[in-house]
Amino acid sequence: MGRVTDLYHQRVASGALRADPAQQAILPQMDRVLDQMAAAPAPRKSAWRAFLGVGSPDPAPVVKGLYLWGGVGRGKSMLMDLMADAAGDIPCRRVHFHEFMQEIQAGLHAARGRGEQDTVRPVAEAVAAQTRLLCFDEMQITDIADAMIVGRLFQVLFDQGVTVVTTSNRVPEDLYKHGLNRQLFLPFITLIRERMEVTCLDSQTDYRQNRQGGPVWFAPADAQARAALDAAWDDLTGGATPTPLTLQVQGRAVTLPAHVGRVARSGFWDLCGRPLGPADYLAVAKAVDVLLIDGVPRLSASNYNEAKRFVTLIDALYEARVRLIASGADQPEQLYNEGEGSFEFERTASRLREMQDAAWGLREGDPQTPIV
């Protein structure tokens, strides 16, 4: 096991990162989590429990996790990556919160099919059997199905000795704000405060805004933008004849109108005008390396559902490092300026800005040649 502080300073020294006092202030808290986990014994099942056939292990040592929140582009995801890298022999999983909850919901569905009375416990115990440290990126809860089970889910995870470190754009008290039946969600906020150290990353710098990218976002979405996307498409596909790409997701067909190899193209309404969700967009992100989207409109309360789907789509593309080329009614920061959902869209606009960088999508060790 390494130390997050050491990894951070190594990357600063190599020029991969620029030292930031607000980020540096978080490092000791991350080191504290890993040091305590390394010193704590792993949960075990006693011989008596095994003899009696009781499934739950002995009470697990409690290592308080970390809830890191703050504005977009401040380096929260980067710090989470460093922590996962530093975990060493500690069984650790680094995953986007959306993706994790999709897996949980699939597990609950399977448990119901087996006739389980308590569907949450076996799913949580299966996670705990493989993982001691869960590193979540972008905890946000907008789905009532997730909101209604997270409290019980995380209580079982914590009781099983799982430590959680997560990033979020919101202070815990603003999670699932104005959501349906929110009073049933409130105990989860209390649980976060009990089991995680809540810390704000108060950097004044949005690193995503400071990165300059190539021409992969075209605004306004006029004939000139259409021609630019046509040219990019021809260049990426070599003029090959496209065909539709249909993905089967949980019994639904998700169709991208045109694809050649792992390059696909779709209109905004094809992807966001239909009742699709995180599982559908994760499937799209796994199926392509480059996605072209035509005609992202201005977003507001009048197309709130479509805007919400677009946010989820961009999250999936971002996590999978899918290259995006798109045309929109305006620059990302100006697409959704007011009304319900505009706060959440700040993160999406920041990610869209970051994804314009020519080297975005490259992972450490990749050849330094952009896809487009």
Topology overview:
Elements: H1 4-14, H2 21-39, H3 47-52, E1 65-69, H4 76-86, E2 92-96, H5 97-113, H6 120-130, E3 133-137, H7 144-147, H8 150-159, E4 163-168, H9 186-195, E5 196-200, E6 217-218, H10 223-237, E7 243-249, E8 252-260, E9 263-267, H11 268-272, H12 278-287, E10 290-296, H13 304-319, E11 323-328, H14 342-354
Parallel strand pairs: 1-4, 1-5, 2-3, 3-4, 6-11, 9-10, 10-11
Antiparallel strand pairs: 7-8, 8-9
Helix pairs in contact: 2-4, 5-6, 6-8, 8-9, 12-13, 13-14
GO molecular function, one term: ATP binding
Protein name: Cell division protein ZapE
Pfam family, one: AFG1_ATPase
Overview of this protein structure:
It comes from Paracoccus hibiscisoli. InterPro entries: ATPase_AFG1-like, P-loop_NTPase. Keywords: ATP-binding, Cell cycle, Cell division, Nucleotide-binding. This protein has 372 residues and is an alpha/beta fold. It folds into 2 domains: 4-200, P-loop containing nucleotide triphosphate hydrolases (Rossmann fold, 3-Layer(aba) Sandwich), CATH 3.40.50.300; 217-354, 3-Layer(aba) Sandwich (Rossmann fold), CATH 3.40.50. 42% of the residues lie in helices and 17% in strands. It contains 14 helices and 11 strands. The chain has helices at 4-14, 21-39, 47-52, 76-86, 97-113, 120-130, 144-147, 150-159, 186-195, 223-237, 268-272, 278-287, 304-319, 342-354, and strands spanning 65-69, 92-96, 133-137, 163-168, 196-200, 217-218, 243-249, 252-260, 263-267, 290-296, 323-328. The strands form 2 sheets. It has a 6-stranded mixed sheet with strand order 6-11-10-9-8-7. It has a 5-stranded parallel sheet with strand order 2-3-4-1-5. It is globular and about 60 Å long. 36% of the residues are buried.
